[in-house]
Amino acid sequence: MASEIHMPGPVCLIENTNGGLVVNQEALKILSAITQPVVVVAIVGLYRTGKSFLMNKLAGKRKGFSLGSTVQSHTKGIWMWCVPHPQKPNHTLVLLDTEGLGDVEKGDNQNDSWIFALAVLLSSTFVYNSMGTINQQAMDQLHYVTELTERIRAKSSPGNSELEDSADFVSFFPTFVWTLRDFSLELEANGEPITADEYLELSLKLKKGTDEKSKSFNEPRLCIRKFFPKKKCFIFDRPAPRKYLVQLEKLQEEDLDPEFREQVAGFCSYIFSHSKAKTLSGGIIVNGPRLESLVLTYVNAISSGDLPCMENAVLALAQIENSAAVQKAVAHYDQQMGQRVKLPTETLQELLDLHRANEKEAIEVFMKNSFKDVEQKFQKELGAQLEAKRDDFCKQNMQASSDRCMALLQDIFGPLEEEVKQGAFSKPGGYRLFIQKKQELKNKYYQVPRKGIQAEDMLKKYLESKEDVADALLRTDQSLSEKEKEIEVERIKAESAEAATKMLEEIQKKNQQMMEQKEKSYQEHVKQLTEKMERDRAQLLAEQERTLALKLQEQERLLKEGFQNESRKLQQEMQAIRMRNRAPAGVCNIL
Ligand SMILES: Nc1nc2c(ncn2[C@@H]2O[C@H](COP(=O)(O)OP(=O)(O)OP(=O)(O)O)[C@@H](O)[C@H]2O)c(=O)[nH]1
Ligand SMILES: [Mg+2]
Fold first, then answer.
1. Model confidence at 106, in pLDDT bands (50, 70, 90)?
2. Which of 65, 67, 99 is nearest to 82 (CA)?
3. What span, in angstroms and rounded, lies between the C-alpha atoms of 5 and 26?
4. Nearest residue CA, atom 10 of ligand 1?
5. Would you place residue 274 in the very low, low, confident or very high pLDDT band (cuts 50, 70, 90)?
6. DSSP-assigned beta bridge partners for residue 546
């Protein structure tokens, strides 16, 4: 089991210095060590509205994110606190506290927009915090939502229309939670009590009319409804009498207003039980290193003047992970081959069969650990590496066989060579005796197992190198007639021609086996790729179905409220999503 994170306090994740956003390396290092899926909760809102205080509650601590007690904005940039998830085992809760929006002293709201956009991009639950009721002022402050289309791109392809692009937001965007602080009204509509969620829905109702006023009234509401189909609202009483507010964190829990404490408990309980692990398109569950990569890609894009693009961030992540997946797959192959293969193998087929079994496993490891492998760049790389490894094994196998055969030949024929040297066969009838002895030793050689694929070749070469010895014995053997010697010479010639043919056949067979293996490797790659593409497609379709269902709900609501135009726009977005649902690309020419 992965060890639990222990961070005594928050650290700055993204610094906001002199108008620029800079990623803090210390925070990245912390993220890189979190192997568990992360539930990312970000809070955003006007400055001095108790955001840091509420985030500390989520961390289960009285102190942590630093609070300010003056009217000046306090938190700068984006701060991060990773804690073990209080309810989901093996998950880490990542709390992101952001710099308050709208501080007039800063005078630059460029950065505010980026902080808002980054919080949306990085979180799985996005908490928007404001003071008092949802009035027009609160809505106006949410103009950042309307700017999101200018701040974020979903798809990287330049041909993507803005319509199509924002249609994709929904599937990538976090759940929206609105927290209303110092809420002093009764939750009622037409004299009936209503829930906070109903209050939010009512507040998001559109106004009829085409005049500028109605348009600016409707715009943020439409955007929230469109981008965040999943919404939730929490109201909070004032936590303590005014004079204590500046030193809230010094107060004991029981000194806080009981209603407020209950509301905080309700909010925390909802977040803990409902906030999901951050998930990217394609069902990719984000862990620490993945969140690290997202932070880097988005901040780099913003710093270099580009729009952060969700698809690019996933692709950048894929590059890192697919490259690691190739290494993991190759390491698996190496380890398995190391364990299972004993060189030399009896036959080439034996080695190729082992290669094939381990290659299959290696491709499986790659498929499990890779995603969005554009044009199969990394799979091809894996294929090339495995092929090189296979060739290397074949070479090693040959060498091991040659070495073993060489030693064996020395062992078996050594004594015969010695006898020849001592003249044991230099006598009448010696030649026949020599041939008989040689045949016996050949049989002995054949009987030794696991000589490997070079057995014939090495024997042939050895015997060829000793041909002149046999030749000399034949020529000098006085017991044989000239005729008999001629017949013997012919027999030797025929024997060696037969051996040459056999060798040639062997080579052809080996080539054939290698060709067949290459074809099988290719088929294995294609098979596993096809299966993965089918799984990915099913996942994509399921994702799109969920998105479409959410959009349909909203579209029907708009229609019911009498906003035909808006409803039609949404319908067009849905159409754009469906259009993309074309048949998957064939696999055959991909690899
Ligand atoms: N009235 C009121 N004050 C609160 C509440 N929660 C916290 N405070 C106080 O408001 C002040 C600001 O709280 P912070 O949590 O620092 O607010 P913030 O939104 O993080 O502020 P910035 O970081 O500047 O954006 C502190 O003195 C808190 O004690 C609340 O619910 N209502
Ligand atoms: Mg703060």
1. low
2. 65
3. 15
4. 50
5. very high
6. none
CB contact set of 83 (below 8 Å; sequence gap of 6+)? 5, 7, 59, 60, 92, 93, 95
Mean pLDDT of the region 203-213: 90
Cα separation, 363 vs 591, in Å, equals: 13
Residue written as token pair 């690691």: 324
The Å distance, Cα 152 to ligand 2 centre, comes to 25
Average pLDDT for 36-52 = 95
Q: Hey, whose CA ends up nearest to atom 17 of ligand 1? A: 50
Residue 174, preceding bond cis, omega within 30 degrees? no
Q: What is the pLDDT of residues 374-411, one digit of tens each?
A: 999 999 999 999 999 999 999 999 999 999 999 999 99
Q: Of 329, 352, 302, 346, which is closest to residue 153 (Cα–Cα)?
A: 302
Burial of 68 per CB tally in 10 Å (0-12, 13-18, 19+): middle
- Between the CA of 240 and the centroid of ligand 1 the distance, in Å, is 12
Say how far apart CA 202 and CA 196 lie, in whole Å: 10
User: Closest residue (by CA) to atom 30 of ligand 1?
Assistant: 50
Alpha-carbon distance 410 to 405, whole Å? 8
Ligand 1 pocket by C-beta < 6 Å: which residues? 47-53, 67-69, 73-75, 100, 181-182, 236, 238-239, 245-246, 248
Query: Ligand 1, atom 14: nearest CA belongs to which residue?
Result: 50
